[in-house]
TrEMBL record:
Transmembrane segments: 50-71, 105-123, 144-166, 205-226
Cellular component, GO annotation: endoplasmic reticulum membrane
Topology versus the membrane: Multi-pass membrane protein
Cited Pfam families: VTT_dom
UniProt source species: Muraenolepis orangiensis (Patagonian moray cod)
Biological processes, Gene Ontology terms: autophagosome assembly
Name the UniProt record assigns to this protein: Transmembrane protein 41B
Amino acid sequence: MAKKRRDRQSAGGAVVAPSVHEEPLREKLEEESLTKDTPRAPVGSARMSLLILLSIFTCSASVMYLVYSYFPELNDDEMEKIKIPKDMDDAKALGVVLSKYKDTYYTQVLMAYFTTPVVYRYLSERAQKWSQQVDKHRKHLINYIIFLRITPFLPNWFINITSPVINVPLGVFFLGTFLGVAPPSFVAINAGTTLYKLTTAGEAVSWNSLGVLAVLAVLSILPVCFQKKLQEKLE
């Protein structure tokens, strides 16, 4: 009877209600179509990323092994001191060994210093980009040099090598270096004079000296910020 009734309703043009078993099937088909349409992340990219990460780690480990294998010959007592210092005594012992290494291999270190023109040749394209950036901020160049000298963002040797390549004027470089290196040098000298009297590493550099360096760094870059804001208001 129920089957005949459904046949009559369909013949009369009435809408046939879906059965209980048809609704889950339709939802399942819709989910499958959605999963097919959504793009999936390629498996190859994840494998490539993992391969690059492993290769970087392998290269770094190989370089460290080469440095360790070609390390100069030291006796057993000195080799025990070549480690990451955990306290002030370890730091002092490491400094003594490195100072001896500098005196013994002075010629090699000096030759490495004079081979820096090779860097100029292989960094010519990048140096041109840096030179363009310097030309844009040439008015405030001395402020940037003082800021970079005070703050530990870039090492001083990097600033010394790249400054003549990117056409930094000698007068600006000298004045910025003189004003920027003086505060950190004062802190370093103050720490060095009391180095052998220390019992803990925290006594070498106090929070006051770090605060002075931070204030001087902010003061060196403030004129640039204020002048830019003033130009924006005038324009």
